[in-house]
Design brief:
Length: about 160
């Protein structure tokens, strides 16, 4: 399989929904969502229902584009830390205030709620591979890390 994902890979995606289009318009990006590949065909992501673990194939059916990225210093042990951190947050609520706060600092921080790219950044931070100075990062910020060479772009993901 071309561009096969491995545990700890970051995926950025988009859909044709109104909310996805609004996020892309606000950020000037081609992506509107971020999630982590856990291995064994499963992902962790924060969506309207909060943090969920579900099959990648189900997510793929919803997304019109998925781009994969890999941290160049990722090891199996670090990947285990990344995915454990994200999976342990399953069931926590979606962080709508944080989405706005990512671009407007000072709105407060709730450690028990997560938006998509915030979950990704915090999981990498917990594993000792910080992607940004804070966990407040957008999907486009993650895409820019691929352009800058901080993350290795894998290209479109085939499921």
């Amino acid at each position: 399989m071309k561009n096969q994902l491995v545990k700890g890979d970051i995926c950025l995606s988009t859909t044709k929904t109104a909310i996805s289009n609004a996020i892309k318009l606000a950020t000037g990006s081609s992506v509107s969502h971020a999630f982590l590949y856990l291995g064994d065909g499963k992902i962790a992501e924060s969506i309207g229902d909060g943090v969920v673990v579900r099959p990648l194939a189900a997510a793929r059916a919803e997304y019109s584009l998925i781009l994969g990225f890999r941290h160049p210093r990722m090891t199996p042990a670090l990947a285990d830390k990344v995915i454990r951190y994200a999976a342990e947050r399953e069931g926590l609520r979606y962080d709508m205030r944080g989405v706005v706060g990512a671009k407007l600092p000072g709105l407060g921080d709730d450690p028990n709620s997560w938006y998509c790219s915030e979950l990704v950044a915090a999981a990498f931070q917990a594993a000792g591979l910080p992607l940004a100075p804070t966990r407040h990062i957008s999907p486009d910020d993650l895409k820019q890390l691929g352009i800058k060479g901080v993350l290795k772009p894998l290209g479109p993901v085939n499921v």
